[in-house]
Amino acid sequence: MLLLTLAETTAIEESLQQFLLIISAALVVATFSQLVPWLRQVPYTLMLVITGMALALLDIRFFTPSPALILWIFLPPLLFEASWNLNWKDLKRDLVPITIYVTVGVAITIVGIALPLNHWSGISLPVALLIGSCLAATDPVSVSALLKELGAPPRLKALVEGESMFNDGTAVVAFGLMLGIAQGTKSFDPQQLLVNFFTVVGVGLLVGVVLGFSISYLTQRFDLPLVEQSLTLVTAYSAYLIAENLGGSGVIATVATGLILGNFGSRIGMSPRTRIAVSEFWEFVAFFTNSILFLLIGAQFRLRTDVAELGLICITFAAVLFTRMIVVFGLTWVSNQLVQSDIDLSTQTMLWWSGLRGGVALALALSVPEDLPERQALLVAVFSTVFLTTLLQGATAKPVLTALNLIEVSPLRDRYLELISRQVALTRVLEYLQQAASKAGVEPETHQAKEAEVRQKLALIQDESSKLCQQDPDLLEIGSQQLQQDLFAIEITTYTEFVRSGRLNQELPGLLDPMHHHTAITEGTEA
Length: 527
Description:
Layout: H1 2-35, H2 44-57, H3 67-84, H4 88-93, H5 95-120, H6 125-134, H7 141-150, H8 154-183, H9 190-218, H10 225-245, H11 250-268, H12 272-299, H13 307-339, H14 345-353, H15 359-366, H16 375-395, H17 397-403, H18 411-433, H19 444-471, H20 475-501, H21 514-526
Helix pairs in contact: 1-2, 1-12, 2-12, 2-16, 3-10, 3-11, 3-12, 3-15, 5-6, 5-8, 5-13, 6-8, 6-16, 7-8, 8-9, 8-11, 9-10, 9-11, 10-11, 10-12, 13-14, 13-16, 15-16, 18-19
């Protein structure tokens, strides 16, 4: 018994040392990326992969991430954070093309990768289809972060993130079906495959919708930021676990829950202060989880490969790029014809190039049973493709965005937003100085001098803002939009207070919703 206890203690110590080493490496990368100016141009996740690769070359290796670690521990918070921050109105605009990408597109990807592998690499068709289903899941985490940093159009961000989140769900479902075929436990029955697919997706959606709206109405009853942060964390994992145990897609359930809570629950059930606290909490969770995951991806790098493996890697990577091109350009043309999506060529090109593969592909590959024939070839193909797409496409994301003119560079706009923020802050300072509490224990001359100083700075800011608006009249729209958002936040906060005090039975819809306001202005102009 003593030996068992010592063995367990040693295992815990080794795991803790590995964990601290990973976190330390990630923090060093994050620090250097901010201290060294030219490193700021490199995506953080790409730097983590390169760091992991360098450590692997020095024979400093971490543990290999298990499928359970990625799918059950890492994936739910990453999916929830992305869906929490995704604007439903932006997503709804392109729901048809996204739906086509994640259904027909996944099928094209699987077949388009499997056929070349079967023909030129000699891999059996069932295993080739399994490789295709592993690599059907896109994971543009680094690209979506870069899109946000560079100020890319919201529509491009919604398309990239929306496709990725739902694509993960359909790819996981397809993988389960293909694994059964490869193991011989299932036969290829198109009708049965469709029934299973819609069942898994339907159960996932149902679980996500029920949980999302339930938690949304629950958070109306109290305003406790720490409790609501914890509640969203529990909800993210609960949606995934419940859906999986009911035979549904945990990915779809988590995405649906995050979308509902981020776009509905956070508006009706959380005060602005709580909403900010929860968003910052999830930003930290995503940073922490991504740091570990991408460092582990780089650490799996293996330099020694023979000629056969090199050919397999080249064929797989080329097939991934080619099928991605067919999916994006071909299916977008179909969508543009069906519903006039009007997705321009530049956006399509960036969609194609942002089709990175990541943690989900690794998890699916690692979950393949060890007794499956050609498992080693599957691992080589998937791991190498994940590494190459992260390294090559991640590194070139910014040049591609720049070449396509998708980076909204506006020094005047940035300066104007800074001035608005300073004006709001100093106005609140001035309001405090005008209260009696600010004068307690302070000499009148000192108080008056501080008030005069604030007023002088406000006047300078207002003067510079006016000059900027004369240079670019479109800047006035930014101030108008900010005012509308502030008014809407005050309105919703008031309704929430009335519900908690018993003056209202349920939250009222906002009359000053910025989106509705913009629509009303547009309609009035057209009329």
